[in-house]
Specification:
By secondary structure, the protein is an alpha+beta fold. The protein contains 13 helices and 13 strands.
Length: 373
């Protein structure tokens, strides 16, 4: 018999967060979350996502043993502003038993029915900057701190239960050796002169902070045309500023400004923390912090986390300027591999950015939907 219980207390939420540690204990490509970071993200008094969203965390038990988990989410900005009659689900992990998946999803259906919503979609988080998608290809490659990993049967469970693909995301990789500096140097000089643009680089995190709000405004403008996009709010800007910027090498953040001092493009690249987080095994102390600091300084792999260009500049070669700036710092840091984090398959403006590097698609993931029964 399967029993579903809502995780409410800090102890219960900790159990919720730790369930995947046992589920994936023999899977070398699974990357554990930082437990304290997950707890903070689930704290309704801490995470500003809860100002416009509600979420409920459920655990599935059989014989007093946890066998699955799921979060039921309503993003009210999405429902009210975009008129999407949708309930989300995320943080879904389960043993290979479709009956457990059915029991967990029923709690999501209940939330949807209670609020007169029409369909369910997931896995996805509270907002656009949370993790997204069931992995459908690329199980043999190591995960990252900003994506979910899952077993192949997750996809099978959803499809057997009548879910259909809603959005497809691709992840790709290319060796740094594919970057040809002569091309970028020449294009960089031409574009800077033609459009009167200036690149800004950093060596200290504190010098970046005054520009972060403008960066998120640009992010909202650059991505607002995508079907799944929900804008980052002012309160969320402050939250993400504190949560992410300190993790990133200042020299891996690039801004481009026009002649009037307006930001027209930005890029954020992160060192790969995958191996470091595996060694930390979910905990910053006593040694996890050391592993993360070491990776921040010495990782040979980088993840292109976010990139945004104002629509009126998207076909003007601005990426040549961005990559010209990165080339110097990547060469100095002996970077070997460049990894793209999940990007919507329909986002052709982003895909065109990478065409000069001959990237290889190595992972695919998708969200699924079905009408609420």
């Amino acid at each position: 018999m399967i029993t579903i219980k809502e995780a409410v207390s800090k102890a219960e939420l900790k159990e919720y967060i730790q369930f995947p540690f046992s589920l994936y204990k023999n899977e070398p490509n699974w990357i554990p979350p930082l437990i304290a970071d997950e707890l903070a993200g689930f704290d309704k008094n801490n995470n500003p996502a809860f100002l416009s969203a509600e979420a409920y965390f459920y655990l599935a038990y059989r014989d007093n043993k946890i066998v699955g988990r799921i979060t039921a989410i309503i993003n009210w900005d999405e429902v009210k502003d975009q008129q999407k009659s949708k309930v989300r689900f995320g943080w879904w992990d389960v043993i290979d038993d479709i009956e457990v998946t059915k029991a967990l999803l029923e709690k999501v259906y209940e939330l949807g029915r209670k609020n007169n919503l029409e369909y369910i979609e997931g896995p996805m988080g509270f907002s656009n900057l949370d993790k997204v998608g069931v992995l459908t290809e690329g199980f043999e490659f190591i995960g990252s701190m900003i994506t979910w990993y899952n077993y192949p049967y997750y996809k099978e469970h959803l499809e057997q239960l009548g879910f259909v693909k809603e959005k497809e995301f691709i992840e790709s990789v290319f060796p740094f050796s594919n970057v040809q500096p002569d091309f970028f140097l020449k294009a960089n000089d031409l574009i800077k002169k033609r459009y009167e643009l200036t690149a800004m680089n950093f060596t200290k995190t504190k010098d970046i902070m005054p520009y972060v709000d403008e960066m998120f405004d640009l992010f909202n403008t650059a991505y607002e045309g995508l079907s799944s996009f929900v804008a980052v709010t002012p309160v969320q800007k402050e939250y993400f500023k504190k949560k992410y910027i300190g993790f990133i090498n200042p020299e891996y953040i690039k801004f481009i400004f026009d002649k009037n001092g307006k930001m027209i493009a930005f890029s954020i690249v992160m060192p790969s923390f995958s191996e470091a987080i595996k060694k930390a095994n979910g905990r910053l102390f006593p040694f996890g912090f050391y592993h993360l600091l070491k990776a921040k300084k010495h990782s040979r792999d980088v993840l292109f986390y976010l990139i945004g260009i104002l629509p009126e500049y998207q076909n003007k070669g601005i990426t040549a300027m961005i990559f010209n700036e990165y080339y110097t710092v990547f060469k100095k840091n002996k970077i070997e591999t460049c990894i793209r984090t999940p990007e919507l398959e329909e986002n052709n403006a982003i895909h065109n950015i990478w065409k000069h590097f001959n990237p290889t698609v190595h992972k695919r993931r998708r969200t699924y939907r079905r009408d609420i029964p």
